[in-house]
């Protein structure tokens, strides 16, 4: 492989690994804040114990997510410097706001929440958590806005040097591609968090049932409420994922029609266009004429146009159109390296786009099915004891993670060979676009990128072991009787109870360490 292919593998591996943690951080953060709010409003101990247990899981994932996310920014400068120069005028403001406004807000208030147990009033403590959660959501929006600009560049003009110059920051922030992608990502994150609550909650309920534990104590209520909350959130999120996904699909047809046709392995233009359920043939070699599908008539036309009759262009036709507009071969320019003057294949790898799209949908449906089972199995106070059902639900925790990861693989691989995709709403002569082949850093050798890829792979593998070890240990430990924090006095009060931990007390430090464990 040449430098470009290795660099793409490196960025893909590290980004997918990092993105496994992002949706859990966002989704679980929202649910933990809801649990904490319900405890403050009701004073019920089960909500407090739920907040403490799931808060620990949230913190472990947050820390590992931050550690793995830092690598992404370094890669921009090391392996993708030409890309960084091209998008710098647009991304500079977005990434600066993400770091200064969102990330600092998130990390600062999360620290207040971690160390504020028993030290600050309950409502201020709760507000700190909500501020941290909101910070993570805002941070996600800035990142998604940057990615969406690559999919659909707006708010820029082409400068004398050929690079885009930002002229309308508000247009970048309100890009319809960003709005659709953000809403889709947030509800998908809630599916991830809901699946985690369902899987671990069912496991703990069965574990307690086999051990003969009572069904009337607080701990039983903790796990039952976790399952019920996770089940309802997962089902609601699945419906919203479908709605926002339909929005994205219609935008994709208008902005990146070749991505949609590749997702369906639709080789020739058809009216009405069918939706492919299963395809076989030479998908991997991109020989589109040798692809066969089992289809649902007219459904792709509906997904693209909201009717069952309109034509959808096929891969072969679109390949010819793109070649006519953007060139049949790469420019004979040193910035393209060995690909200079070579033919351009505008069709993404059909096997990747086709199957990643179906994995995204299929794994989301699996998660919704498990949520429905969990709600049915725990109805009217029942405790599920089916080994297959409970352990199947525990394994299915991974389903929405796979759905999120394959969704991003589809999104990024589907826009190749462009790293910045041309906006079809802009006249051809004024369009901003950038080929992936010219985005890699000049002078970087294959050996150097291989070294960083292997090093990062080993490091990320070790971090995965650490995270799994910590999460498994937390799950086996479950909730503890120590997960109850006395209410601190109101602001200005001089009351002090013997059981109320304060800074300087060993009991206060033990409580913080126990929570952050």
What does the model show?
The chain is mainly alpha-helical and about 525 residues long. It has 15 helices and 6 strands. Residues about 485-515 have low confidence and may be disordered.
Topology:
Elements: H1 3-42, H2 45-78, H3 81-115, H4 122-151, E1 156-158, E2 164-166, H5 169-173, H6 176-210, H7 218-255, H8 257-263, E3 275-281, E4 291-296, H9 299-305, H10 315-326, H11 350-377, H12 387-395, H13 398-413, E5 418-420, E6 434-435, H14 446-477, H15 506-516
Antiparallel strand pairs: 1-2, 3-4, 5-6
Pfam family, one: Cyt_bd_oxida_I
InterPro entries: Cyt-d_ubiquinol_oxidase_su_1
Organism: Geodermatophilus arenarius
Sum this structure up briefly.
66% of the residues lie in helices and 5% in strands.
The run of helices and strands is: HHHHEEHHHHEEHHHHHEEHH
Task: Give the uncertain stretches in residue-range form.
Answer: 486-517
Q: Helix count, per DSSP?
A: 15
Number of strands: 6
Q: For the terminal residues, how far apart are their CA atoms?
A: 44 Å
* Biggest beta sheet attributes: 2 strands, antiparallel
Approximate shape: globular
Mean pLDDT: 86
What's the Cα radius of gyration?
25 Å
Biased composition (Basic and acidic residues): 494-506
Protein name: Cytochrome ubiquinol oxidase subunit I
Pfam family, one: Cyt_bd_oxida_I
Region (Disordered): 482-517
